[in-house]
Amino acid sequence: MAKAAQADGKKPPESVWTRPRRAKREQPTLTRDQIVDAALELLDAEGLDGLSMRRLGTRLNSGATSVYWHVANKDELLELALDRVMGEVRVPRPDDGAEADADDGPNDGPDAGGWRAAVAGYARDLRAMIHRHPWTVPLFGAQPMIGPNATRVLDEVIGAFDGAGLTGTALDNAMSLIADYVIGAAGSEASWQGVHGTATGEDWIQALGPYLDGIAERHPRLTAHIREVWVRDTAGVVEERFDYGLSCVLDGIEARTRR
To answer: Which residues bind DNA (predicted)?
Structure first.
């Protein structure tokens, strides 16, 4: 199959997790964990653009050859880094609903302590991880999620949906919907925070005051809306927005289970 794919001009799927490791007797002093630790330091400090194999070798006081012994290229290194931070994500069990952060909006129903609470807890934990490591956002969907931490999370997410009555494609669609919502929302939040830091809505209202006055006649509804919302506590608005979206997603999934 691999030869046929190459003959057709298609690149066969590759992953650091499917490539056999070299024999331990050949292993250099530098370990895979040390490489991933150093890569994470660069990624968290400078993002994806700050990571290169050369800079990583310099940070480790080691030649690139030692790094390439463990990983074939930067893509494999990013696979390892993404799986490492996925280890920070925890997924409540449906029967842990009382302990999970079950406040997923005003539509909490009788299932708020069951699968909804478990899935909501996972969503919030994934969001928190993305805020700590915003460089992960472009990697979701680009890197195969087959490492030990990612597979543990995905298996637990399947368990979190226990009681929702979903199987097969329907379950896969629901899992993907939750992940897509969280990645999109958290990625947008992290991007804004990374650029604008601690600037509040009130700061923006003051800075944009003359501009809003200038467009108020053409866009009265928009300017009135901005002034109404942005005077509120920024962090509170962001949290409320995320909770509202998560509640709507969960409501939609639940509605489909009742058809």
So the answer is: 52-71
